[in-house]
Amino acid sequence: MADPTGFMKVPRETPKRRPVDVRIRDWREVYEEQPFADLQKQAGRCMDCGIPFCHQGCPLGNLIPEWNDLIWRGEVGEAIDRLHATNNFPEFTGRLCPAPCETACVVGINRDAVTIKQVELRTIEEAFKSGDVKPLVPDRLTGKTVAVVGSGPAGLAAAQQLTRAGHTVAVYERAEKIGGLLRYGIPEFKMEKSILDRRLDQMKSEGTRFRAGVDVGGELTGDQLRTRYDAVVLAIGATQWRELPVPGRELQGIYQAMEYLPWGNKQGLGEITKSPIDVAGKHVVILGGGDTGADCLGTATRQGAASITQLEIMPRPGNERPSSAPWPTYPMIYRVSSAHEEAGERMYSVSTEEFIGDGTGKVRALKLVETQFVNGKFEKVPGSEREIPADFVFLAMGFTGVEKSPLISQLGVDLDARGNVARDGEYQSTVPGVFVAGDAGRGQSLIVWAIAEGRSAAAAVDRYLMGRTQLPAPIEPTARPLMV
């Protein structure tokens, strides 16, 4: 145990965010660096529980009490070894994961939980600073080849594990650069892309080959892919976005979030001077109250929107854990992201009735109505209809499965009832030698689940190719989180 009385005498403290009026003028990450001595005190709050429920809260099975103790003692080198034992990319999860481990923390039963996510993030950052993150080149090559289609967190995790097992791995990405949603979906102010690039450099040094700008299913067919490689891993995500079929949807100025965010990232990186979807001086409405909606909010704020309104059909969550989500499950509570601190209004229990045009084919307003949840469905509140100005509308309402691309039909894989690629207990699709990892098989989920699935799928592929494997497999494909 780190500090036996740490959780009693040290209050929870997270890093400070840069002042709002400063950070909205740039695209850099919003958090300031926490002094390492303060971080050690936070790590010392860990109780080293007899039954560490944080393990169950984390799909990766991170050895949280172990590296908390090591950080408290200042043994960063040992701490990163324990962290890397279960997580290929703690610098990603430390920034982007909503930390279900913290809601499962035993200290959190009657006190503020340990700042697990921040200790994780600072551990890897200290390791990068000291040069402790080195390429792990395999001792020998197996002669087996694997194609990974998709370069998001699941694909990258699978690729790194398989490369380290000695296989020759090529990662295919249809976008112009490697990274998937990590590069084009996550705004720069949440994770600067230099963080992604330094990890890709490590993977290149280990032997992973990257093929960006390749349309698999188009210029490279599924048949060609299967002919060239001994196994294929589909990590193509669940990118079939949910639509909103209401009157006026055809008006100009209404976009899906993933049509907007990549341009904002390019603008933040200086790759373009002005986004083709630029909301400067305009009224913006965002449909969807989740993380993607908040990403749109932060992007619109930095572009200088005149007003931003974020709509959510569900009621406003409470500030405390509800009785329906007892510890250690992940509770639905009211959360304020950095983007919510900066600008915008959040409206709950409302539904979009219609998009209203200006007579020239462009949207000018959104008609909404208040809702109430009655007998298992949403019902309109009579007389609550009203309009709000909307020069731009962004739909951030989630995804409904994999994109129905030519690759799916070329490979001949089956889809399940939810629109995901069907798979068995070994992450294998209905086509032998074709495996599925991440959102493509699981459905839209968290980055920590994507990495866990990538690692587990890699173990299954290694076993398929070699008859056995020494790669760890954190989860089964049917595993579900401690969430309601």
Concise structural overview:
This protein is 33% helix and 15% strand. The protein has helices at 6-9, 20-23, 36-43, 53-57, 64-72, 76-84, 90-96, 100-103, 116-130, 153-164, 181-184, 193-206, 222-228, 257-268, 291-303, 338-342, 406-411, 439-442, 447-466, and strands at 145-149, 168-173, 209-212, 231-234, 254-256, 283-287, 307-312, 345-348, 350-357, 363-374, 377-380, 386-389, 392-395, 434-436.
Any descriptors?
single chain; 484 residues; alpha/beta; Fumarate Reductase Iron-sulfur Protein, Chain B, domain 2; FAD/NAD(P)-binding domain; 5-stranded parallel β-sheet; globular
CATH superfamily of the largest domain: FAD/NAD(P)-binding domain
CATH class of the largest domain: Alpha Beta
How far apart are the first and last residues' alpha carbons, in Å? Answer: 31 Å
- Can you summarize the main beta sheet? 5 strands, parallel
Query: Helices and strands: which structural class?
Result: alpha/beta
Return the domain count. 3
Poorly predicted spans: none
Q: Let me know the number of strands.
A: 14
Radius of gyration: 23 Å
Average residue pLDDT: 94
Here the CATH topology of the largest domain equals FAD/NAD(P)-binding domain
Binned strand content: 5-15%
